[in-house]
Design brief:
about 475 residues; alpha+beta; 5-stranded mixed beta sheet; 4-stranded antiparallel beta sheet; 29 strands; globular
């Protein structure tokens, strides 16, 4: 411990400011602050250790004096031994507790600094008048962000500037999901008005603005001073934002809220999921119902399509998710998976042969399509999990939680990071959805929640995986 104290903050400062250092100034500053915290913690430990040693010596002196007074009495010796052992044990436990608490604080400081360096909040997209249920990024140029809100609108945003580019006003109820066509400038939205809409968009990207320096952000472990929601006041939406009011295609036939919708590979068909316990497969060009997928015992919560195969997965409040196979036109098979104990909030495909499911039972499970009898990995968390997203290249799972946190895990269930959140940044209410956009250099992960905002994050994936 004395050796650790020998490295003073002055020496650290000199070390961190060497001209040949390849570290960015902001990172060097964070490291310097961290080393200073470590030095202070070791100083406190050293002083407490000295004080505890004095107490032990004082106690031993008193016990020795008592031992001389009752010398020769076996019973007294036994009592003396017991007392000494108990007192020493208490002091030892106190020392261990102090050390563990201090060490934990050091480790937490290190993790917070690392998280800030690897996961940075870049842009906030504000303009909806109610909670945002869903979001996704376009798969064609220009790449924009789409959000679906309970305020009956969907919005398209410039990822770089945060400006609203277009507002869709065609629904008469909450807009519950938004997905983009794989090759054309068309959006698919699902709504509480019991319909799904396909609509075309044309946007003009504004000139890019310089990205603000977000390295000096508060710790992810900052405690909220209150649950005050800054977005509770009336937020004026973008008044100069152009709007679309009429869809090119309206998909009807559900008898309840349409909670989600997605494009099948190729973009000629879509699937919708509803609270009427059914999922419907439609032909986009004719608006005709091709198949009604029934079998769930309770309301559906989500649906997802495979990126390059004719596979659909539907999630439900009945604690199951179902895999529907349309690869053979003559046979439409279905498999039921019962791995959760509460509502399955979403199940999504990866590019490979995996399905990842999230649930209100606070778990996320990774499944192999070739053998889905039991999950190959289970992630246990402290809060219900909402609409998850898996990155295409590195298969990193982004978990949005009811408790306002967003966590990142790999496919084997190893936690990689928690996105920074405090009373000054991050989500202030339930996080409803996450969506990766790995090819974007400004923001490669997006989240949205019931605080009426979407957030764009920059995740340094190579650094994240290196820390693993």
């Amino acid at each position: 411990m004395e050796a650790a104290l020998a490295l003073s903050s002055d020496n650290l400062d000199s070390f961190m400011r060497t001209e040949d250092s390849k570290l960015p100034l902001s990172l060097r500053t964070n490291l310097l602050d961290l080393f200073s915290q470590i030095e202070r913690e070791f100083e406190n430990l050293y002083l407490e250790n000295i004080e505890l040693r004095r107490e032990i010596e004082s106690l031993n002196d008193r016990l020795a004096a008592d031992g001389q007074a009752v010398e020769g009495a076996d019973l007294a010796k036994g009592a003396l031994k017991t007392k000494a052992s108990h007192s020493t044990s208490q002091l030892s436990q106190k020392l261990k507790t102090t050390y563990k608490a201090s060490t934990s604080k050091i480790v937490s400081s290190f993790k917070a600094t690392t998280s800030r360096a690897v996961c940075q909040l870049v842009k906030e997209y504000v303009g909806h008048r109610d909670g945002i249920w869903d979001l996704s990024a376009t798969r064609t140029q220009p790449v924009v962000l789409g959000t679906a809100s309970a305020d009956h609108t969907a919005m398209l945003w410039s990822i770089e500037t945060g400006k609203c580019l277009l507002k869709y006003l065609g629904h008469q109820g909450s807009v519950n999901s938004i997905k983009f066509h794989p090759t054309e400038q068309m959006a698919l939205t699902a709504s509480g008005d019991q319909t799904a809409h396909v609509w075309r968009y044309l946007v003009q990207l504004p000139a890019p603005q310089p990205v603000a320096d977000v390295t000096q952000t508060p710790s992810e472990d900052d405690v909220d001073s209150s649950d005050k929601d800054d977005a509770d006041g009336e937020v004026d939406g973008p008044n100069d934002c152009p709007s679309v009011r009429v869809p090119t295609t309206t998909l009807r036939s559900h008898q309840g809220v349409v909670i989600a919708a997605d494009w099948l590979v190729g973009g000629k068909q879509v699937v919708t999921a509803s609270w009427d316990r059914a999922a419907n497969l439609y032909d986009v060009e004719t608006s005709e119902l091709v198949h009604s997928l029934t079998g769930h015992d309770q309301e559906l919560t989500h649906c997802c399509t495979h990126p390059n195969q004719r596979l659909v997965v539907t999630s439900s409040r009945d604690t199951t998710f179902r895999l529907w196979d349309f690869r053979d036109p003559s046979i439409h098979s279905v498999n039921v998976f019962q791995g959760h104990t509460d509502t399955v909030t979403s199940a999504v495909f990866t590019v490979g042969d995996n399905v990842v499911s999230g649930s209100d039972d606070r778990t996320v499970k990774v499944w192999d399509l070739k053998n889905m009898r039991s999950p190959i990995a289970t992630i246990r968390t402290d809060s219900a999990v909402n609409r998850i997203s898996v990155s295409v290249n590195q298969k990193i799972i982004a978990l949005p939680h009811d408790n306002r946190q967003v966590r990142l895990f790999d496919m084997s269930g190893v936690r990689l990071a928690r996105l920074p959140r405090s009373n000054r940044q991050g989500h202030r209410r339930m996080v409803c959805c996450s969506a990766w956009c790995e090819d974007n250099t400004t923001c490669n992960l997006f989240t949205c929640g019931f605080d009426r905002q979407a957030i764009g994050w920059n995740i340094n994936i190579p650094a994240l995986l290196q820390e693993k």
